[in-house]
Design a protein that fits this description.
By secondary structure, this protein is mainly beta. The protein has one domain: Beta-grasp domain (Ubiquitin-like (UB roll), Roll). The chain has one helix and five strands. The chain has one helix at residues 30-37; strands spanning 2-7, 18-22, 46-49, 52-53, 65-69. Strands 2-1-5-3-4 form a five-stranded mixed beta sheet, with no helix packed on it. It is globular.
Length: 75
């Protein structure tokens, strides 16, 4: 199963902006990808699957796009 992963802001530090990954059988939840990237669930402020609000337990399907955003501050 192929999934596109898009990282934003500080999640890109030492990682990538966009990646297409083949997920192994049984590792099709958002939490599985977070763990493989070393991102704690609590660090994710916005999680989108195909542009729709999602969470760590969302099950991904072939061709989905996962977008992950950390909390963003500013002034």
């Amino acid at each position: 199963m192929r999934v596109t992963i898009k990282l934003f802001a500080t999640f890109r530090d030492g990682r990538f902006k966009m990646d297409i990954r083949e997920l192994p059988e049984g590792e099709n939840r958002v939490i599985d990808i977070l763990q493989s990237l070393g991102i704690a669930q609590e660090e994710v402020a916005i999680c989108l699957v195909n542009g729709r609000d999602s969470n760590a337990q969302t099950i991904l399907a072939d061709g989905d796009t996962l977008s992950l955003f950390p909390p963003v501050g500013g002034g």
